[in-house]
Task: structure prediction
Amino acid sequence: MEDTTIIRRCLSGCVEAYEDLVRRYGPQIVSLAFAMMGDRHEAEDVAQEAFVRAYRGLPRFRRKARFSSWLYRIALNLCRDRLKARSRRGRSAGEESLTELDGGPREQAPRRLADRELSERMREAIQGLPPLYRDCFALRHLRGLPYEKVAEILGISPETARVRTYRAREMLREALASSVDTFWREKAAREKRRPAEEPGE
Amino acid sequence: MKKEKKMLHRALDGETSRSETRFLRRALRTDDRTRAEFEALRKVVEASGQVRVEVSPDFTRKVLEGVRETTRRTRQT
Result:
């Protein structure tokens, strides 16, 4: 069912219809918020609030815009507000322990330490980016959106979205130089070892 | 941002023209600095794929509870 059809049903008072939109965009919004906030619980909290705000705002939603773009924008604004509040409180980002990341050991097989460390450092580095660059990088690389869609969500031109993403990449390259090199070295070594370790495959 | 640098970024996005691709291929073969820079950027982009999270199973239920609650409150006021 198309987003616009679901929205029409929601506006006619059918709250249950909204479930389809939550299932469709929930993982994307939570992942985006996680990349921005660095804390899984806070990410889900932000995503929930974004969905509730979007629902409340449906009567004002312009049908010409895409629901997903509008929702991304709401979530990004919430992330920005929370990050501002967090920096006022002086709380450091990424307080979650490594074992809790990515669903925790019960939900997923534990990932290698090098992968988890890189993931952790990447998130910290992303959070350290200036907000304008961070938003573009997160939408482009963590959500895999084309520049045109990034631009639509942020209300900027595609060229500005490109340049901001490029700058974010440069900053991350500086911030992550040693971690990224270690990760790729270890990954290459693992792949080299694999045939000898797993002869049956 | 310099033109050459922009080209490296466009290449990461697969957006270079045919002539730019040719130019870049040559530069990557002959210029160590360009090659190192391109590799470093490529690794950053690929490493960003490490940041991911699973949504908890009760996420949708919690959102719908929130929506119902907000609808109830709006009706009361």
